[in-house]
Amino acid sequence: MERRLAKYIDWGMLIAILALIAIGLVAIFSATHTNKGLNYGDPFYFMKRQLVSAVIGLGIGFFMLNFDHRSLGKLAWPIYYVSLALLAVVLVVGREVNGAKSWLYIGPFGMQVSELAKVGVIISLAQYLSQKEDLDTWRGLFGALLLVGAPMFLILLQPDFGTAMVFVGITFGMLFMAGAKPAHLWTLAGIGILLVLPLGYFFLLKPYQRMRLLIFLNPYQDARGFGYNIIQSMIAVGSGRLFGEGILRGRQGQLNFLPEHHTDFIFPVIAEETGFIGCMVVLGLFFYILWRILHVISESKELYSNLLCTGIFSMFLFHILINIGMTIGIMPITGIPLPFLSYGGSSLITNLISIALVLNVYVSRQKILF
Question: In angstroms, what CA-CA distances link 309 with 119, 299, 324?
Answer without folding.
Answer: 11, 11, 22
